[in-house]
């Protein structure tokens, strides 16, 4: 019997017990087989209530980010079509890169419970402690010219921020290009790595790191002042597989919009959700530091900054230097 189908059935009836007979009819297996699978699920951390005569009810599922748990919640068509789960990895970016080289399909994701060499942008590291967050990379193969890469970076921020808002009492804000913050603390970061030839992007690997269940005191050192988790604002622990499914859903819908209609709607949504535009910033690029007011996003996804002498400079990638630490 397919364990996943049993889980899906139990999920669909979480409000009432489902009888062994109903399950065996639905899945076309014997009641003994049902009972064996229920025992197997319990061993894997699923809490399943069994009331005599009334049947089985799924009370709680484990907070694992394994393939099965994610699939239970998935409602997407393409994203998440292939899921690679590992308990511990160096970086999920590496797992997806290997798959991409072997011809992995668009929509493939790698998820880990822990990363021991989690990477941020510009060679920085990303703290990816076990159990506490979502450490996930997504493989895309968009057929766009490489100069549009910044658009995908902004798209990722919009899709992720929108999904996370569903779990928070107040909305997140995007700091250019794609930090997701709440009260100016970093809730999630995105690392976009691209392989392209002269005319076309070959693969984009979007790495997303989301702080989910860290409690006060779990962020130490520089992160104590800079980082935040969903739990700290939502007040309770959150289900990581459910959030992963929400992220993929939101991402798929923005990605489809982008591939069909272009960057317009993404640009508008990003501009609406950022707290960067309109503020005075210092951006460090690979060549210089640009200082001025963040004006707008161009149609290619770059940032325009109006310098104090009135001239306008377009910045394609860089890092906004931090102001004083948040209250
Ligand atoms: P970033 O360069 O914008 O952010 C890195 C900086 O953020 C660090 O220098 C540190 O100050 C801070 N930081 C480190 N860890 C955390 C954390 N857990 N929460 C908040 N702030 C932190 C952002 O880079 C891109 C991060 C992508 C992470 C994903 S996880 C899945 C995939 N695999 C992988 O190795 N990276 C990506």
Describe it for me?
The protein is an alpha+beta fold and 327 residues long. It folds into three domains: 3-60, Orthogonal Bundle (Arc Repressor Mutant, subunit A), CATH 1.10.10; 67-273, Bira Bifunctional Protein, Domain 2 (BirA Bifunctional Protein, domain 2, 2-Layer Sandwich); 280-320, SH3 type barrels. Helix content is 32%, strand content 27%. It has helices at residues 3-12, 20-27, 31-43, 67-73, 92-101, 149-165, 223-226, 230-234, 240-261, 264-273, and strands at 47-51, 55-60, 83-89, 109-115, 133-140, 173-175, 179-182, 185-196, 201-211, 280-284, 289-297, 303-307, 312-315, 319-320. The strands form three sheets. It has a seven-stranded mixed sheet with strand order 3-4-5-9-8-7-6. A five-stranded antiparallel sheet has the order 13-12-11-10-14, with no helix packed on it. A two-stranded antiparallel sheet has the order 1-2. Strand 12 (303-307) and strand 13 (312-315) form a beta hairpin. The protein is elongated and about 80 Å long. The N and C termini lie far apart (54 Å). The mean pLDDT is 93. The protein binds ligand BTX. Ligand BTX binds next to helix 5, strand 5, strand 8, strand 9 and helix 7. The site of ligand BTX has 29 residues, from helix 5, strand 5, strand 8, strand 9 and helix 7.
